Structures
1.
Amino acid sequence: MAIVVGHLSTPEGAKALAAAEAEAAQRGTRLVVIGSGNGVEEVVQRLEAAGVEHAVVPGTGDLAEDLVREAVEARAELIVIGLRRRSPVGKLILGSGAQRILLEAPCPVLAVKP
């Protein structure tokens, strides 16, 4: 079992990572971080310092697909995503990535906002 989160260098991504880290620590489960590039080493150091068991999986560029695929492979108990504020019209339609994750996820999805 695991918790899956994507690493994005945005306020929403930071909030999702913090929530996923807290959930993994509380549940005593492994945290799988999807991401590559800038900031991943800092994330790894932070998780090691916190004593959170973790793995980093490189992304393919389609974060929604990566999160769902890894959730299936890791038999995840939770996916954590960050949401951003949207315009009044945008509120009627969830972001396409978030919508895909919610519809295709094999487990519960925790959506957090900054």
Note: The longest helix spans residues 11-27.
2.
Amino acid sequence: MPERKIRVLAAKPGLDGHDRGIKVICAALRDAGMEVIYTGLRQTPEQIVSAAIQEDVDVIAMSCLSGAHDYLFPRVTELLKEKNVEDILVLGGGIIPEEDVPSLKAAGIADIFTPGATTSEIINFIKANIKRN
């Protein structure tokens, strides 16, 4: 029986309307053999978590360029904890100041990928860190 593909939910939380970067990431993950579900623009943390659970994903990859990452990303991890979901790897990316990264990681974001990160880095990180059995 073939192993199930890694399933990734890609999301743009908040009011950020810039989606070129997340679409590039989605294409790269798909080309790497992953199943990618893109939720589209302006998703609430509640919508993201609900979709992730419904789609039985291994990874939530969020992109934020609006500056609201310090609220939106941790809110997703809070909601996952409230629902006792512990097996989803949560990643963030976008225009995120380096000084914000430690608090985001402390809130449960596995890693942050900022401009300059390669798609290979993201793919390798996912493969090395997914939490499924």
Note: The chain has one domain: 7-129.
3.
Amino acid sequence: MRVLGLDVGTKTIGVAVSDAFGWTAQGLETIHRDPNHQDQDFERLRTLIDEHEVEKVVVGLPKNMNGTIGERGQACEAFADAVSERLDIDVAMWDERLSTSAAQQTLLEADVSRKKRKKVIDKMAAVFILQGYLDRHQ
């Protein structure tokens, strides 16, 4: 069973996918969002779900450090609900606290330039979100 992981932001959506066994997460792409054409986000996700035969989507939930859910977290929950309804697929939320920081640190340790980090950080954060989910549910 393949699972798609999403790091949802206001400008981009980082996307990762699991292997067929649900053991490892690999970065796929970063979807650049246009607030005037939100349907494009769902069309691209539908294409990725079909191409990779995905059975579940995991959306990162940005909680505050004290565990509460703020404005950004509420927006991610609303996006997850829309994915579930519009794409008719099972969606789970996953606590993504520090996933972007972990992705940033990994890229820094790999000596990736600032310009290149900016291009892949969302995709890497999606990998951390999805891998955390997969590790917990194996």
Note: The first strand starts at residue 2 and ends at 8.
4.
Amino acid sequence: MTTPRAALVYNPVKVDLEALKAAVAAEEEAAGWAETLWIETTEDDPGQGQARQALAEGADLVIAAGGDGTVRAVAEELRDAGVPLGLLPSGTGNLLARNLDLTLDDTATALETAFRGDDRAIDLGLIRIRHPDGTVGQHAYLVMAGLGLDAKMLSATDDELKAKVGWLAYVKAIAQVLRDKNQLHIRYSLDGGPNRSVRAHTIMVGNCGSLPANILLLPEAAVDDGVFDIVVLRPEGFVGWVQIMVKVFWENGVLRRNTVGRKLMGLTKEVRALNYLKGRELVLKLQRPEEIELDGDPFGEAVAVKTWVDPGALTVRVPREQ
């Protein structure tokens, strides 16, 4: 029987390499695995090429050590590969790890899960983006795709400040983009249905529902249900933003988390400022180019988008059930 071997794709900016190598060596020995293959990401290749190399060299497990961008890039190449993805989160977001309730700040536990955990099949979001110059790019994402204020906020965030204070850096960016009065003018079709028009400040398509700071944006989203949850934010002035904040932070963040709260939610009304949809495929056409983000990383401007779910396309290592 061949001894299994892992490959670890790491972002050198995000990890303490010496400490990580020591922790991996200890877990390899405990799990009875061969020496891990180490592959470093680069500015030009954030993880796709490294994941391909890992598969070509016969890795039985590919561990992504870095931020959300590294995880997304590696997952893109592991789609339908039959090789599990292990998560060693770092950076400010760790969005997939948060949504899978994985350890965020304990390297030893995260490595134990990667080497000796259970396999779980989750959905992968695929997206085709048409840019203003006519080029089309296809990508995968794990958590959310966003158009509008969401993407503008990310592009307005100071990267140096983000490195120092994490998600607090977005406060300045949020204040900046909320002054932007431009709305998205969208024509869309959901699951091959009729074309509809909507004006909105933001539209987000989610495979998972939780954001950092325990914000539950898409309360019914699940990583393995075969559908997207979509939220359209269209506040009208200050009152509309207040309605959104109450819905997201109070109802989703507090009431929904206990039985009494869920009963109280039955008494609340839906608000026009925030609408939820579900579907497996969404096609969007925009009146003008708009910025788009995937899993917290900017992907330029889009004039049209097609996104769909690939159910169970990615296998992820999660803690072993006791």
Note: The first helix runs from residue 17 to 31.
